[in-house]
Amino acid sequence: MQTQILPVNARSLALAKEILLAGGLVAFHTETVYGLGADARNDEAVRSVFAVKGRPADNPLIAHVHPDYDISRIVDGEPPYAAALRRAFLPGPLTMVYPSKGKVSRFVSCGLDTLSVRVPASPAAQAFLRAADIPVVAPSANLSKHVSPVTAQHVYDDFAGKIPLILDGGRCEGGIESTVLDCTGPVPQILRAGLVTREMIAAVAGDCGVYHMKEGEKPKSPGMAYKHYSPRCRTALFAAEEGALAEYAREEASGGTPYLLCTEQTARRHPGLRVLSLGETPEEMAANLYARLREGERCATELVAVLPEARGGVMDGVLNRLTRACGGTVNET
Ligand code: TXA
Ligand code: MG
Question: Are residues 35 and 135 in the same domain?
């Protein structure tokens, strides 16, 4: 199969709709990361998303719709705070999990009695979703476990020859995936941190919990249980600069090509080292993280990351992705 990368225009949108309605896959831009889209109502199309990505069969998908789509067609009611959250943050990088059963293919939610729904803000995503005018399931358009894609080229690198079309909407400016928020209980609960922060949600809903998986428990959001976001080179994450510099020196002494992955402030202190800078602010770090991880896997034998100091807000999402990309552990020394 030949994979076309096309700009978003009337012709490519018509082609995208044709592919979707025939059960095929179309990758598209959103404000967070690129998505791998399929018709949420079509069992075979949904199953092929899992197959092409190599995604575990128990990790549910998000249904994407345009801002004028009537979500009562796909969800079974909502708690009172949900409408306020929608008004405050949608379209935008917030995915809301609603009670729902039997409204889309049963393969979307992997047996759960819920459906996650997202209304992206990106004009390219909205043009695509309006053209299709159906709920479109879309995981991030990367091979399972690999780093999420923030350019059309990243999608191509993972799926060339495996999908027919990538709609190129430019670089994703948000850079980390949407906040996933459980809206089935009396208080909303964050399942995955993102650009819409706990503080922002609590300010509108009155309160906002954060879900932490307990040892041995079946996770509420199955995606949390899997290895994720990993570059194809070795990685190590350090709480302090000294430990990272020692690891960098060790790798270099043994003939490797280490790169330091760190904030711009840290990078400035080490002009002599090979550095991949995440930027200065939490928003810059979110926007740059995946592109730097993908650059790193191409040029480094080992990515030696220094944990940024900032905490809270957008950093919850940045630190969650960075830690998981580096194998889930932070070296304290
Ligand atoms: O920003 C995003 O959300 C991107 C773009 C393409 O929209 N999509 C994305 O999809 O990140 P994916 O499949 O890579 O991650 C979806 C996450 C997973 O952790 C999954 O377990 C969780 O959302 N999820 C989906 N449906 C769920 C549900 N019904 N209940 C609980 N968690 C759910
Ligand atoms: Mg993903």
Answer: yes
> Residue 193 CA: which ligand is closest?
1
d(CA 236, CA 54): 25
- Ligand 2 centroid to Cα of residue 79, in Å, is 27
Pocket of ligand 1 (CB under 6 A): 30, 32-33, 35, 59-62, 95, 97, 109, 112, 114-116, 118, 138-140, 177-178, 180, 191-192, 220-223
The environment of the single-atom ion ligand 2, i.e. residues with CB closer than 5 A, is 140
Q: Per-residue pLDDT tens for 29-74? A: 999 999 999 999 999 999 999 999 999 999 999 999 999 999 999 9
Distance 244 CA to ligand 1 centre (A): 32
Per the listing, tokens 């990367």 go with: 142
Identify whether residues 22 and 132 lie together within a single domain: yes
Pairing of strands 275-277, 258-262: parallel
Q: Which amino acid is at 186?
A: P
| Ligand 2 centroid, distance to 229 Cα (angstroms) | 8
pLDDT tens digits for range 260-277 = 999 999 999 999 999 999
Smallest Cα–Cα separation from 288: which of 181, 142, 124, 147?
Answer: 147
Between CA 297 and CA 226, with CA 236 as vertex, the angle to 5 degrees is 80
Which atom of ligand 1 lies at the shortest distance from residue 35's CA?
Answer: 6
Indicate the pLDDT class of residue 225, thresholds 50, 70 and 90: low
Of 150, 178, 210, the residue at which a domain comes to its end is 210
Q: Mean pLDDT over residues 186-204, rounded?
A: 97
Count H helices, E strands: the chain?
10, 15
Strands in 54-101 per DSSP E: 62-64, 94-99
Residues 317 and 264 both lie in one domain: yes
Q: Is the pLDDT of residue 227 over 80?
A: no
